[in-house]
Every structure is written in structure tokens, then in C-alpha cells.
Amino acid sequence: MTAVAPSSFSDFVDPNPYAKAYKDQLRIAVGRPRKATALESLAIGPAASDVEASIASPPKQLASILRPAERDSVSFIAVQSWEGVVEEVTDGGILVRLFDKTNQLRPETFTEIDASQVDTEDADLVREGAVFYWMVGYEHRPSGMRRSSFIRFRRTPAWSARELSEVKARVDDLLTKLPSP
Amino acid sequence: MLKPTKTQSSIVIVGATNPSIFHPIWFSANGLIRVGEAEAAEITIVSPELTLFKTEWLAVDVRTDRIQLLTEQEPYFPILRDLALGVLTLLPNAPASAIGLNWHQNYALPNQSAWHAFGHTLAPKDPWKVEGIGDWGMLKVDMRALREGDGPEGHIDFSVSPDFTSTNGVRFGMNEHFQLKATPGSDTGPAIAVIRDCWEASQQKFSSITEKLLSQVQE
Fold this sequence. Notes:
The complex is a heterodimer of chains A (181) and B (219).
Chain A: H1 19-30, H2 38-42, H3 48-56, H4 61-66, E1 75-89, E2 93-100, E3 109-114, E4 131-141, E5 144-153, H5 161-177
Antiparallel strand pairs in A: 1-2, 1-4, 2-3, 4-5
Chain B: E1 6-14, H1 24-29, H2 35-39, E2 42-46, E3 50-54, E4 59-63, E5 66-71, H3 77-90, E6 98-108, H4 112-122, E7 141-146, E8 154-163, E9 169-179, H5 189-214
Antiparallel strand pairs in B: 1-5, 1-6, 2-3, 3-4, 4-5, 6-9, 7-8, 8-9
Helix pairs in contact in B: 3-5
């Protein structure tokens, strides 16, 4: 198996693919068992052997705290997908240009999307030139299957002022190296 | 035409990193995922040795020598790519020595006869027949090809195996490995270029190989 494959191909079918990872971390977290000291041997209370046993066998509650909560498995099979670009944002809608990713031989199309179809968390991303993904298909949940669609805008990290000035400095440098016309 | 019953895509970035950075809030604070997703994330652990968390569509697994981003929902495949690009852009001084683009799909073949015949096509049994040994069955076929065309050197590993969790199930998996030349002082530019320029072609390769193999399924 190459170094950059997923941790294990068997992770794909293991219902709890992180079981090994969090068990490894549990071993790191609880430390290694140690022998009871002479003082503990003389202490009134649990016998030294009991103390040793409890150190060697950490309480199982710790494992359950670290175990990830089971989440309903949801899968989405796309029937149709587009990549879109915002052409213009108007009062009621968003004019977009769509590229059919399911059939790339189809020409691009123009349409208008109602702003209400965009998730509120993506509202700030809606601007001219913004890229988004539009998928239509079937959502498979344990409770059953249903037709579904979603629109999601591309997210790129916010550029810091330092990064912008670095880019500007590089551009300025390149411009000075260009031959004058 | 058969449709997949399960899909998965993951991007693995190999390089030294600090897993404790990769808290869900770090992702949302940098605009990489939605704030609501970060707040609802199921965090297994965030530590200097290991970070594991999941959102509705994303599974993040970060160790000291690699970052793995994974999704099992096809609509989020390009979003996963954008996320990987975003992470690399935010960590310019953490050069990657390799990139892995990984794809998986499960299919249910029409019937048991087709399932057995498919396994027999990929792994013929006659060369294996030895007296006294019972019938052989295919557990997994692994193939490797060197990368061709644009981009860094590397290889493509493709595997086919029965999926015993479903009836007449078959699982296809591909890892496209890109070897980068990480040197002291280099940045994440080459890694960004691989994901930006080669991701879509990698997905196409996986589709083409899977289609070619499935075309040999007898219905």
C-alpha cells in the first residue's frame, strides 16, 4: 500500500474507521501502567494488587468519551451536476452561467436562480464571478431515499493584507523585468 | 448502466504538520467550511499528535506526517478539492513531499452469476488449479501503472475486490500518487498545482477504468 492511500482500504467498509486511531490515542492519553509504590503497599484501603490492577486497566468510561458518536450514514448519488459562475446579482435573483458537468458536450447555459435557493451561510459568497456547484440527485438515508438538490459556493481562504502586499510586490517585480514596448 | 451504491473521494497531503492546528473552528474562521458545520462537527480528538473530526460531509484525519480530507458524498467531491487547495494556501511554509488522490466506488452487480463471472474475468482460475486444493475465489486484484502526461512523476494503483457487505457487491479503488520534490525552503506551490491541475483528470481516469471494467460484466 502506498504512503498516500487512505489509512487503510478496510476503512472504507469499517463502520467505525477511526476505531484504531482513537484507540491508539487512548493508549497515549492514559499512559502506561506502573507498579504500586512501597507506600501504596502499606496504605490502608485497597490492596496494592488492587491499585496495580486499576492502573493497568484504565476505566472504560474514557474509551466511550473518545468514541465518535454514531451518525446516520447519508449518501448522495448525483444524477445531474453543473458548475456555475455568477454573472450578475439582482434584487430578486442571481443570473448565472452553467456548465454541464454530467455531459460536457452540452454548451453552457444561462439562467436565473432565486436568491432563496442559496444557503444563508453562503450568502456572503454570492458576488459577480463567484463559482458554485449545483447538484441534483438522490439522497440515501437509513430512513429511505429522496430526490434532493443543493447549491454550494466555492470557498477560498481570505487573503490577509500581508499576502496581498506580497503578491503586489511580486507583480511589481515582474513588471520591471518585462521588456519595454 | 450500473450506478454506484457508494462513492468516496479523499485527498492525502504528505508532509510534516501540526495536527493541533486543524480544529473545525480553524477551518470556519478561515472561510474554508461553513460556521454551522464547524460548530456541529463531531470532534474525536484535536491534539499535537492526531486530529480527527467529522462534519455532515467531511472527515478530517491529520497526523504529524499527513493530512487526509475525505468525503463519501459525490456532490462534495469538487468542494473537497477546494478545501485541500484552501488548506495548502493557508500553510505556504509546510511543503508536501507527495499528494494522493483517492477514489472509491461500490457497485451491486445484477446477479450472483454475473458477480462470479466478473471475478473470473479479472482473475481466471485455471492457472491456479492444483489437485487437492478446493475452488479458488478472487479476494482482490491490484494493478499499478506509471503516471503519464502532465504533472510530477508518480503512479496509479487500482484495485478491485468483492464487497461482502452487500449482495453481489464489487468495490473499485484508485490511488493516484504524485511524488513531489520537497526541499528546505520550498513552499506548497507544487502541491497546489497538482490538486488544481490534475484532480479532474484523476477523477476522469477513475471513471474510465471503472467503466472499462464494468463493460465486461455479463448481465
